[in-house]
């Protein structure tokens, strides 16, 4: 690989050996970082040691890894797009009769007052006006790292155009570091927003979407280059304007992502989103640690 790593930082690393092409490829955080030709891989049975072993064919020169290793698995040679998905899909919750994560991280979701109904895709989660009523997941550092690009995508079928859709906090109670990322304004418009280290909120106002038996696909993306983009049904409907160099100030820890409620908490800065209970259904929640392209978002919308 070509990248020099930093201490005390998590990286997603992947190695692929292609027997047919006789190549080996290293991926770092989902992207190719090293490539070379390779010979035939020895197929004789042997043990696999994680975290250390001899180098250069020596039986005495042992090298050991000092650090943390998590979520190791090897089943087959994966494609580059599969590895990118493994590295950057922080959580995927289809809500098909389960609150758990169907993505690569196997996160556990919880809910209060919610129940399953027929969804946009298979089943969905219904959130009622009874307070509090919400779904909650604890993510990786996808939304907890300042200036880290991210994408939040989900289908919604609102009963009323009010409340918080996506609320992020450092504590499960909704307290600590907290901020509403997606929700509704006082006029019922969809809002996407982030905050910086000066507690200055950058918000973009989307359209007023239909209520009743209508599903709408909502996506919020952020990057320091493009700022905020709000996609509605596969198309950009609002974006932050002005110069590049957008910033996002995060908690610095693993955050809780709550759908439908701020749990009665009042954050110091809430931007244009009016805090409160969201009433309606949610489906197909995805959180990425990168900014998805418009083509990728269109594919999510099209199914």
Q: What does the main sheet amount to?
A: 8 strands, antiparallel
Give the class-level CATH name of the largest domain.
Mainly Beta
User: In terms of per-residue confidence, which ranges show pLDDT below 50 for 5 or more consecutive residues?
Assistant: none
Give the beta-strand count: 20
Q: Counting H and I runs of at least 4 residues, what is the number of helices?
A: 2
**Percentage of residues in DSSP E strands:** 35-45%
Level of helix content? under 10%
**How far is it from the N-terminal to the C-terminal residue, by CA?**
35 Å
Order of helices and strands: EEEEEHEEEEEEEEEEEEEEEH
Give the rounded overall mean pLDDT: 92
Give the class from helix and strand content and strand pairing. mainly beta
Shape: elongated
CATH architecture group name of the largest domain:
Sandwich
Question: Do you know the CATH topology of the largest domain?
Answer: Jelly Rolls
Tally of discrete structural domains: 2
Rg calculated over all Cα atoms = 21 Å
Which key features would you list for this structure?
2 domains, 7-stranded antiparallel beta sheet, elongated, 20 strands, single chain, about 300 residues, mainly beta, Jelly Rolls, 8-stranded antiparallel beta sheet
């Amino acid at each position: 690989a070509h990248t020099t790593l930093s201490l005390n930082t998590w990286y997603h690393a992947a190695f692929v050996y292609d027997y047919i092409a006789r190549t080996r490829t290293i991926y770092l955080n989902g992207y190719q970082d090293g490539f070379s030709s390779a010979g035939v891989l020895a197929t004789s049975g042997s043990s696999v040691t994680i975290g250390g072993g001899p180098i250069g064919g020596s039986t005495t020169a042992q090298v050991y890894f000092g650090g943390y290793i998590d979520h190791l698995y090897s089943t087959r040679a994966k494609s580059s797009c599969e590895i990118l998905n493994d590295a950057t899909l922080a959580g995927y919750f289809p809500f098909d009769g389960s609150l758990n994560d169907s993505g690569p991280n196997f996160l556990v979701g919880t809910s209060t007052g919610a129940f399953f109904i027929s969804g946009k895709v298979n089943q969905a989660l219904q959130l009622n006006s009874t307070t509090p009523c919400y779904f909650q997941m604890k993510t990786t550092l996808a939304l907890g790292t300042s200036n880290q690009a991210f994408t939040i995508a989900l289908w919604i079928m609102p009963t009323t155009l009010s409340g918080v859709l996506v609320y992020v906090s450092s504590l499960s109670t909704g307290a600590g570091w907290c901020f509403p990322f997606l929700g509704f304004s006082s006029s019922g418009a969809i809002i996407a927003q982030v905050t910086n280290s000066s507690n200055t909120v950058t918000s973009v106002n989307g359209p007023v979407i239909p209520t009743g038996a209508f599903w709408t696909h909502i996506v919020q993306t952020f990057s320091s280059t493009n700022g905020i983009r709000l996609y509605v049904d596969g198309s950009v409907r609002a974006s932050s304007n002005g110069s590049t160099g957008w910033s996002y100030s995060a908690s610095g820890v693993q955050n809780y992502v709550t759908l439908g409620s701020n749990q009665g908490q009042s954050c110091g800065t809430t931007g244009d989103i009016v805090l409160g209970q969201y009433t309606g259904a949610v489906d197909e929640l995805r959180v990425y640690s990168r900014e998805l392209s418009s083509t990728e978002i269109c594919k999510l919308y099209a199914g």
